[in-house]
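Long-time lurker, first post. I've been practising inverse folding by hand and with some scripts of my own, and I keep getting stuck on stretches where the structure tokens seem ambiguous. Below is the full token string for one chain I'm working on. Before anyone asks, I'm not after the true native sequence, just a reasonable design that respects the backbone. If someone could post their per-position residues I'd love to compare against what I wrote down in my notebook.
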């Protein structure tokens, strides 16, 4: 079930809201347990088998958390933590990476391991990282282990953030599980945030996705202009798709009294790759920083070891996104960029051109990220930089440009903080105060009509 489906919008969500806010049973225990049940139904709707895998992960994580807290010595705590990490990372490896590893081993040994083909459970990377966050926070003394397995289940399975994040840290939400306070102001603000996220996804991301897919997957020679148009469309698609999902998740959470941290902060206005990663998928970056980079020593070690720490973090960041060499190379691409930036500080010397540099780097990275394999990525990048079989510009470019120019321009504008600027400038005006709900209702109506009529509705990060 996806947030932008009619089943979710007109059946699941209204029913959950009505039961959650029923006037007869208002206890925190009832609301938490009902949210957990609804979240399991939400996941089982699309994953009727793998929901049991998630439940197993939750139970094991809950038990390991108790054992870490009850361990008498640091060595015992570390041993129990290691068991928990090996279990959860092992499950992630089996379901996400074993098929790829077997295929690569088969190529190396000239053997056929195609019999090893395991379906990827939706959202496994996200709920695995949240379980690891739970165990690490207990181990480092940032949080206490939950005595109730159902409370751990709610933290992991909470449907607003279950499938594609943001990655919610346990130490930041433990208090909210037990003591949050719902109110109509938060509910209305959450609903507004959800609608804007839905508009991002359905009205912009889905449209430019078709342009990106047509160009990347065309299988015909590209011109340089068409190649750049394709990567521009994908650059907008992945931002509005993922940030739209995050907006919907944050909005839904707020409707039920939860406050999730922001996951995006207009990353395309960045002036360096370093700044881009402070603004893009913030919850993932902070997770790797706090649970991998800093425990490895961060930058408080020798320069050689610091470089090694960066390499590990960015290799893991790439691999986290998928079992393909393109993702690993994409992560290492950013490792090289960030290393050079930190050693030379050259973006600071570029002045206004720093923004151009950052956008070029980001778009080249997305080309590698989107390509099906390294050979395709190399061919596409070559076309972008003048080695295009169809020349500099062709008729295909004009066909796609004229058919999508309005959405591309809108996407470029809204990927900058245009709307927050309007909100700040006119927030006190009566017209804006009464007009924004009308505007949001219009966005919801239009998005709903598109959801009903369109069949193209994937979320990119469901694959991760």
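-- Answer (accepted) --
I ran through it position by position. Result:
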């Amino acid at each position: 079930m996806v947030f932008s489906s009619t089943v979710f919008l007109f059946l699941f969500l209204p029913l959950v809201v009505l039961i959650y806010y029923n006037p007869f049973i208002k206890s925190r225990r009832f609301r938490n347990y009902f949210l957990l049940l609804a979240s399991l139904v939400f996941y089982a709707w699309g994953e009727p088998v793998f929901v049991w895998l998630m439940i197993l992960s939750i139970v094991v994580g809950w038990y390991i958390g108790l054992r870490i807290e009850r361990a008498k010595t640091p060595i015992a705590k570390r041993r129990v933590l290691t068991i928990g990490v090996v279990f959860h990372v092992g499950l992630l490896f089996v379901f996400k990476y074993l098929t790829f590893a077997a295929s690569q081993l088969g190529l190396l040994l000239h053997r056929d391991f195609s019999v090893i083909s395991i379906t990827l459970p939706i959202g496994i990377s996200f709920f695995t990282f949240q379980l690891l966050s739970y165990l690490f926070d207990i181990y480092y003394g940032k949080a206490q282990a939950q005595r109730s397995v159902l409370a751990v289940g709610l933290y992991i399975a909470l449907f607003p953030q279950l499938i594609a994040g943001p990655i919610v840290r346990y130490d930041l939400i433990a208090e909210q599980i037990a003591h949050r306070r719902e109110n109509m102001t938060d509910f209305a603000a959450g609903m507004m945030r959800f609608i804007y996220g839905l508009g991002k996804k359905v009205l912009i991301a889905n449209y430019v996705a078709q342009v990106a897919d047509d160009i990347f997957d065309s299988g015909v020679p590209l011109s340089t202009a068409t190649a750049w148009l394709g990567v521009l469309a994908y650059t907008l698609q992945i931002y509005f798709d993922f940030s739209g999902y995050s907006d919907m998740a944050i909005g839904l959470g707020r409707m039920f009294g939860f406050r999730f941290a922001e996951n995006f902060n207009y990353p395309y206005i960045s002036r360096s790759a370093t700044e881009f990663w402070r603004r893009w998928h913030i919850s993932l970056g902070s997770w790797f920083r706090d649970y991998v980079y800093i425990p490895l020593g961060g930058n408080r070690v020798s320069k050689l070891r610091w470089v090694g720490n960066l390499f590990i973090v960015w290799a893991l960041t790439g691999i986290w996104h998928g079992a393909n060499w393109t993702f690993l190379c994409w992560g290492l691409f950013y490792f090289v960029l960030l290393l050079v930036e930190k050693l030379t500080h050259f973006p600071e010397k570029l002045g206004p051109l720093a923004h151009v540099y950052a956008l070029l780097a980001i778009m080249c990275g997305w080309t590698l990220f989107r390509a099906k394999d390294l050979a395709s990525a190399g061919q596409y990048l070559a076309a972008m930089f003048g080695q295009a079989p169809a020349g500099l510009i062709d008729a295909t470019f004009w066909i796609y440009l004229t058919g999508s120019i309005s959405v591309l321009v809108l996407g470029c504008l809204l990927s900058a903080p245009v709307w927050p600027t309007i909100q700040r400038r006119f927030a006190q005006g009566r017209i804006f105060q009464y007009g924004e709900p009308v505007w949001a209702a219009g966005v919801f109506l239009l998005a709903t009509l598109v959801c009903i009529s369109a069949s193209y509705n994937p979320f990119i990060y469901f694959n991760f």
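A couple of notes from the structure itself: The CA atoms of residues 69 and 141 lie 9 Å apart. The mean pLDDT is 90. Happy to go over any region you disagree with.
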